[in-house]
Predict the structure.
Amino acid sequence: MSEQPTHPHHDDEHHIVSPFIYLTIVAILLVLTATTVAASYVEMGVFNPIIALAIAAVKMMLVVLFFMHVKYSPKLTKLTVGAGLFTFLVLVGMTLADYFTRAWGRW
Amino acid sequence: MRLPVSDSTAVAHGAAEAAHHEHPPYQRHHFETMGQQNDATNFAMWLFLLTEIMFFGGLFTAYLIYRNWYYPAFVEASHQLQIGWGTGNTAVLITSSFTMAMGVWAAETRRKGTLVLCLVLTFILGLVFLGIKTIEYSEKWEKHHVPGFHYSVQSFVNPASDPEVYKEYHDKPLAMDMASKTEMYFFLYFAMTGMHALHMIIGISILGYMIFRAQAGAYTTGHVTFVENFGLYWHFVDIIWIYLFPLLYLISRHQ
């Protein structure tokens, strides 16, 4: 049996993210921007767009979790954001899978 | 007019909670606690942002489909964008997200002066972003790369005629039918960055209003919902640009 937390999350308590965390995040974001630009100057063939989008995804996660406070938000918000992202990927992924395979085997 | 049932519940609850159930003036009477009100508004703001994500998602999907179809045209057309301006604008927008996050912190910790300063900085950085975008747009205008307005495929059927771009990329001439598809790239470029810029303009207008309200002390009384939710909007606009930048500027540098 898991024991009940002695001090359950109190709804009225508003988590204030410290300026130090914001400063760290903005520094990482700027470094990642420089990285993605530098990476675009290196010939990597098919990996160029993959790396660029992967870095963009990391930047998005940092903004969502810290600037947008999702890391410190109630479960409802976390679930909403996660479900939204998942639905988005399903919609875009399925559409692209359709279009990219329409001429399959005809070349 | 209130329904009697809600009244009696309120009374019963009030009796149970006794005297300490006083609530701040900004708590709406249909919310039990401030925490509940905050969670509800936060949830609603995220739902709105999800509709925005789906809306931009349509544009991103269209871009990826057309890029796949008319690949050579999209690669050469994207060489017309200057990575320097794009990188600068990314840095400007990320910094403005930081100043906005600091604004939320200042409102939460009731620092009026800092809040006004953060909002003003965010406002200025937003204008800098739009200024750089204007420089880029006017360059497209001068080169007849605005779709529908005397669009010219000159730079793509004869890349050497565009020495600035040619000396960096040495693009091969495209056949006329493929070169005409570069118009589709610029159509999507203007649609996506234009829709993003429209969101920036709306954001900057709201910021202008907030600066005056913040000076009057509106957000440093403990009620930070408006600043917080505006922050979410501003960061969302930043995220859109985080994806636009690599997709439009970076991923076709080679090939």
Helices of chain A lie at 19-40, 47-67, 75-100.
